[in-house]
Write a structure and sequence with these properties.
319 residues; extended; seven-stranded mixed β-sheet
Length: 319
């Protein structure tokens, strides 16, 4: 109570208290709450028709008096992790403060910058900062949408523009080993477009509907990480971005073909093995052996890909 400042109806507070060692029993938790009420260390107040049980304002001082240690209030206050200052609504994407603080955030990077974008232009100032951070050893991962996806979301006229911007991004960092540009063909992965992560500790979410709005129509929200903690939204972004990165390909020549072969190699191997089964060879049970091997390779592949194919069909039918 002294560090987390719970304010809940008593029944809910009982369930919270039961998570603490030695108070797992409902009876013990209720008894502890009643004793604290009698002692005057917690109190009950009415709010919007609900009775809430919470600490008294001077709880930390009461604990210090009980223990005879004047340092207790400061120590308990330091133990409380307050996330409120680390979650900020910065404003509409078109606001100047969003742009300038974005540049400041990029300049602050020490380890890694993750930039998913649909078809953003490589603006001079952004490129300059990213090159500077790359020179300082910061890893920069830039994830762009393939032109066909950009055309689907933003219109056919954007196809050639998108292809040109991809070439510009690649050319801007062709001499920087710590910067990599990759392409995504997944609509779901590109839902992250215009968001950004820095050092795995600060994430900016551009809140908008990517299927019907432009990114500049969104509202920017920033989530930071206090020392020793990584909030769930920061972890979520990093996990989703890493998965999207693993599915993406290099924009360089033959990369698409390589990705295609890499993803479907089990299918090609299954076809090759089963086809070999029909080659006349003087080996007993030759066909049965190879068909069995082919089935062993192909069955897991079908189990992996069938749910993905089903989801694609469902999305296609919903459009």
């Amino acid at each position: 109570m002294a560090t987390r400042a719970h304010a809940r109806p008593e029944a809910e507070l009982v369930e919270i208290v039961r998570q603490y060692s030695g108070l797992e029993s409902i009876a013990d938790a209720r008894r502890a709450i009643r004793e604290l009420l009698i002692r005057g260390w917690i109190q009950q107040t009415s709010s919007y028709g609900t009775t809430l049980t919470h600490q008294v304002p001077n709880l930390r001082e009461l604990i210090a008096t009980e223990l005879g240690d004047e340092a207790i209030p400061a120590q308990l206050l330091a133990m409380r992790a307050n996330l409120e200052p680390h979650v900020r609504v910065l404003g509409a994407m078109k606001d100047e403060v969003v742009y300038h603080t974005f540049m400041d955030l990029l300049r602050s990077a020490q380890q890694e910058i993750c930039l998913p974008m649909l078809a953003t232009t490589p603006y001079d100032e952004t490129v300059r900062i990213l090159r500077e951070r790359a020179d300082a050893g910061v890893r920069v991962r830039i994830l762009l949408a393939v032109p066909s996806l950009v055309a689907k979301w933003r219109g056919e006229t954007m196809r050639s523009i998108s292809a040109g911007r991809i070439r510009q991004w690649v050319e801007c960092f062709s001499d920087r080993d710590t910067v990599e540009v990759r392409l995504s063909s997944s609509q779901e992965d590109m839902e992250l477009a215009t968001c950004v992560s820095v050092d795995g500790g600060v994430v900016r979410y551009d809140i908008y509907d990517p299927y019907s709005q432009r990114s500049l129509e969104g509202v920017m929200v920033e989530v930071g990480s206090p020392q020793g903690l990584v909030p769930n939204l920061v972890r979520l972004f990093q996990r989703v971005f890493d998965d999207a990165w693993d599915r993406s390909v290099s924009p360089r020549r033959f990369a698409m073909a390589g990705r295609f072969l890499k993803r479907w190699w089990k299918l090609w191997l299954t076809i090759a093995v089963i086809a070999a089964a029909f080659i006349p060879v003087g080996v007993e049970n030759w066909a049965e052996i190879l068909i069995g091997i082919g089935g062993g390779i192909g069955a897991p592949f079908i189990l992996e890909e069938a749910p993905k194919a089903y989801r694609r069909v469902q999305r296609w039918r919903a459009q």
